[in-house]
Amino acid sequence: MPKIYNTPKRKIVVKTRMTDEEYADFTERAKFCGISQSEFIRQAIENAVIKPIITVSPINEKLLSAIGQLTAQLGKIGGNLNQIARFLNEHGTPYNSLYSDVQSAISDLADLKFEILQKVGDAVGDVQTLKL
After folding, report:
1. Nearest to residue 126, comparing CAs of 73, 59, 61?
2. CA triple 22-24-30, angle to 5 deg
3. What is the pLDDT of residues 109-127, one digit of tens each?
4. Whether the Cβ atoms of residue 76 and residue 44 lie closer than 8 Å to each other
5. What is the pLDDT of residue 4?
6. Do 95 and 87 touch, CB atoms closer than 8 A?
């Protein structure tokens, strides 16, 4: 009389390659447990705790120093632009031709800030938490 198994119908086959040593260890363990190789793999998968490897870019002193210097430079440039804009607003007509230059400088400053944030984000992660 043939054996009747009460197991779910499995139709997916998983293949892998092993060294001679790995295969000998694998078959010995399955035999020691008194189960088939397939059952050994299923139980190993079900009970295994595998932690993913996460690679983190370290934040070093050099990077922090460079960010600090760039932040200070951006602050000074922004302050100078504000003084220029105030002067132009107060004195009007003779300096109206400089208005487009100041607008262009403000735009360049915003582009520079965005580029810095992108590079810092690429180096360390979350750009959203950085404020310049």
Report:
1. 59
2. 100
3. 888 877 777 777 776 654 3
4. no
5. 67
6. yes
How far is residue 117's CA from residue 114's CA, in Å, rounded to a whole number?
Answer: 5
**Cα separation, 33 vs 40, whole angstroms:** 8
Domain ranges of the chain: 1-50, 61-129
Instruction: Please name the amino acid found at residue 7.
Output: T
Our CA angle for 45, 34, 7, nearest 5°, is 60
Would you say 125 and 107 are in contact if contact means Cβ atoms under 8 Å apart?
no
pTM metric for this prediction: 0.37
Amino acid at 61: E
| Tokens read off for 55 | 């690679």
> Structure tokens of 114?
């965005």
